[in-house]
Amino acid sequence: MNTSVLNLEDIQSGVLLPRPTPFAATYIILRIDDRTGGRELMRRLSTVVASASHVSSPDRDTWVSVALSFNGLQALGVPQTSLDSFPPQFQQGMAARAKMLGDQGESSPENWEKPLGSADVHVVVTAVSPDSEHLESALERARQSYRQLTGVTAIWRQDCHALPDEKEAFGFKDGISHPAIEGTGIPGSNPREQPLRVGEFVLGYPDEIGDGSTTPQPEILGRNGSYVVFRKLHQRVAAFRQYVKAKAASALSEELLAAKLMGRWRSGAPLALCPVHDDPTLGADPRRNNDFLFKEDDAIGYKTPPGSHIRRMNPRDANVAGLPRIHRMIRRGTSYGPPLPAGVMEDDGVERGLMFAFVGAHLGRQFEFVQSEWMNDSAFFGGTSGKDPVSGSSDGTGAFEIPRRPIRMCLQDLPRFVITRGGEYCFLPSLSALRWLAELKF
Ligand code: HEM
Question: Can you tell me the distance from the alpha carbon of 156 to that of 152, in angstroms, rounded to the nearest whole number?
Answer without folding.
Answer: 13
